[in-house]
Design brief:
single chain; five-stranded mixed sheet
Length: about 190
């Protein structure tokens, strides 16, 4: 494939991702004009197995922060909690801090556990829940919402990339990009 063909393919993919982003935006609650939005996902291959976490954080001015890290070994719930922790930690590093933070994930277990919507917390996840709750308390306005897996495509892609890298220690090879860009949101 020539360099020109590769560049053409990359431009086409970028346009398709932008189109999917606009479609995703039209179907989600975005909060106010200063809201930051984040998506998170964790993967375990097999379950339990190698963990990968993915998170995407988008700012109101086109800022984009991606996290894609291997996260050791554990269950899919461990991976989901690690991904939620990662997106919250990324949001805490933003300056100025987010006025409003809307977070979306496809793990009903983790979201229900954090929100306390079930009478008994998820067994074996007490430490992860305490960590997330402590991070959530550092924000003025934050919401956590479940969305179907097919609407969490970008975070899933980032978590799968991390599992594929697998042997990378967490934090050494994350895909992190901060700065204004054309709006790209999770694919559907």
């Amino acid at each position: 494939m020539t360099e020109e063909a590769v560049a053409r393919k990359a431009r086409k993919e970028a346009k398709m991702q932008a189109r999917r982003a606009q479609q995703a935006l039209s179907r989600q609650d975005h909060g106010g004009p200063l809201a930051w939005r984040g998506w998170f996902d964790g993967s375990a291959h097999p379950n339990p197995g190698k963990l990968g976490i993915g998170a995407l954080l988008l700012g109101p001015n086109g800022e984009r922060i991606e996290v894609s890290e291997s996260a050791g070994y554990g269950s899919s719930s461990d991976a989901e909690y690690a991904a939620l922790t990662a997106v919250l930690q990324a949001a805490l590093k933003v300056r100025p801090p987010p006025v409003q933070l809307l977070l979306f994930g496809d793990s009903q277990v983790v979201i229900n556990d954090v929100l306390g919507t079930t009478p008994v917390g998820a067994k074996g996840l007490e430490t992860q829940r305490a960590t997330v709750v402590a991070l959530l308390e550092q924000f003025n306005e934050v919401s956590l919402r479940w969305l179907p897996r097919h609407r969490n495509g970008e975070a899933d892609r980032l978590s799968q990339l991390a599992v594929d890298r697998g042997s990378d220690p967490p934090g050494l090879t994350p895909a992190v990009d901060v700065g204004p860009k054309s709006p790209r949101q999770p694919s559907n």
